[in-house]
Amino acid sequence: MADDQNILRIFCAIELPTAACARATEHIKSLREQFSATPASWNRDGRFHLTVKFVGEIPQNKVERLSLAAQRATVNLSPFKIIVAGAGVFPKKGPPKVLWLGIDDLSGGLTTMHTQLDQECAREGFGKQERAFHPHLTIARVRSQSGARELAAVHEERGFAPVEVPVSELLVIRSELGSAGAKYTTISKHPLTGKG
User: Fold this and answer.
1) Which domains does the chain have, with CATH numbers?
2) Whether this model's pTM surpasses 0.85
3) Cys bridge to 14: 50, 69, 143, 153, which one at CB 3.0-4.6 A?
């Protein structure tokens, strides 16, 4: 058992500011009230993270190397803005499993951050991301197909009016999964200090 305690589930992400989180929470609240009988795991803590790279389970003694990779990836990046807008569902065809809010990376800053982070993580021995980078905010995971299509249709129909989000740091975060939902702990913060 001692070995299990030294394995951490880690991801690198941007934390959304309070105003954007409040808007997303309102969106969730209205859907939950309307579809209270549809089993789904919703974001419950009112905090939202935009995952830039999901690393997965790694030994605790490698976390510092991951933080160093994140620091190198962000040192020359300048703060930028993204827009949270639109609502969608994964998968596009078949029974809905994930409800998400869209991300517009108009400046290209988020894509640059992801590319540099992926490269620096690879230098430290962490695998490169296999799938194409499609940034989004997960707001719910559907646990049963009872009422799921109706829920997904209303979520997409309602949409999500654009909210501008300034990005000035990247976080390395530990995720602990539990029956009450995930618990998140910030391990390190990496400000974007570039002047460009």
Assistant:
1) 2-191 (3.90.1140.10)
2) yes
3) 50
